[in-house]
Write a structure and sequence with these properties.
Blueprint: H1 12-17, H2 20-29, E1 34-35, E2 41-44, E3 59-62, E4 68-73, H3 88-105, H4 110-114, H5 116-137, H6 150-168, H7 175-186, H8 191-198, H9 210-218, H10 231-238, H11 248-254, H12 258-270, H13 278-281, H14 285-302
Parallel strand pairs: 2-4
Antiparallel strand pairs: 1-2, 3-4
Length: 307
């Protein structure tokens, strides 16, 4: 399972540039990290004594005492002079991502798996609809102007959901079977249809990253209207499903990191500022009230997300 965003296609360059592990080890050793309300999770604040760059993603690693810890950075969401919170919504999102990440790293997958149906549907619908609109509009004549019919749209969402479900499954699990069960719950899709879509995927093994997801989409015969979508444009599209203070790369990395995506989905449900984003539009309580109530209740019971 993809545990943290620093291991994603988009996040890897930042892991090297920020010297993540060495910096966190030094902070932990010097007791410059602030404990959170969850055991094993620590926070970087403006009170940290070392001059370090901002960490865009929560990071999980083995500390000097050999315990697994997760660290996230609250400085982008606080005033540098007095440490007062300036962006409480996104701070809660990153806090939840860190809490989920620590649980996954210590083999507690329950909160993440309980949220899977909502998170998978929100991801597949938001990314899928953006790509469908892109194909319909034919931006710069790059993809084509004919509309994608409903069969094409559902095929795209099945591939997106299958990819995201695979990110949460351990090596050796039957991802196809899990996909069939999840998609039956969220879309009511027939098993035969799902199997037929998955047989079109031109990827050896599971779709484990955004590079392979892009390949699966553009090489799918049913999705021929998307065959000329470049990887660069694909990253641009997925980076716009919601917003982040530090940029689109945070959102793009979340599309390869279930813990971070689950946190963004939670934010889109509970914070009004996200309701008109592509992600938020797929989580309108008028159409999903009971499902969303169960989703947020599960998160709120599992974690204390207050400051």
């Amino acid at each position: 399972m993809q545990i943290d965003a620093y291991s994603t296609t988009v996040g890897k360059p930042f892991r090297v540039a920020n010297k993540v592990e060495a910096t966190i080890q030094a902070l932990h050793l010097s007791q410059s990290l602030t404990p959170s309300k969850k055991e094993g999770v620590f926070v970087i604040t403006h009170e940290s004594k070392l001059p370090i760059d901002v960490f865009g993603f929560p990071i999980t690693l083995q500390a000097y005492n050999r315990k697994t810890i997760t660290v996230y950075d609250e400085r982008p969401y606080r005033d540098q002079n007095n440490n007062k919170v300036t962006n409480s919504n996104e701070m809660v999102i990153m806090r939840l991502a860190a809490f989920l990440q620590q649980d996954v790293a210590t083999n507690n997958l329950t909160p993440l798996k309980q949220a899977r149906n909502v998170t998978t549907k929100a991801f597949a619908d938001s990314v899928g609809n953006l790509l469908i609109n892109r194909a319909s509009l034919g931006s710069n004549n790059m993809i084509g102007r004919s509309q994608m019919v409903s069969d094409e749209a559902l095929t795209l969402k099945v591939i997106l959901a299958h990819y995201f479900i695979g990110l949460e499954e351990p090596i050796g699990s039957d991802v196809e079977l899990v996909t069939i069960n999840v998609l039956r719950n969220i879309y009511g899709t027939d098993k035969g249809y799902i199997v037929g879509v998955l047989e079109q995927i031109d990827v050896d093994g599971r779709i484990s990253n955004l590079v392979l997801l892009h390949k699966a989409i553009v090489s799918c015969p049913t999705l021929y209207k998307l065959k000329n979508l470049s990887f660069k444009d694909f990253l641009h599209v997925i980076g716009t499903i919601t917003f982040a203070a530090l940029g689109k790369h945070i959102v793009a990395a979340a599309c390869e990191c279930p813990t971070l995506m689950t946190a963004f989905v939670y934010g889109a449900v509970v914070f009004k500022s996200y309701k008109n984003t592509p992600l938020g539009l797929q989580l309108d309580p008028k159409f999903n009230q009971k499902l969303l109530e169960g989703f947020t209740l599960g998160i709120d019971l599992a974690y204390n997300l207050n400051g």
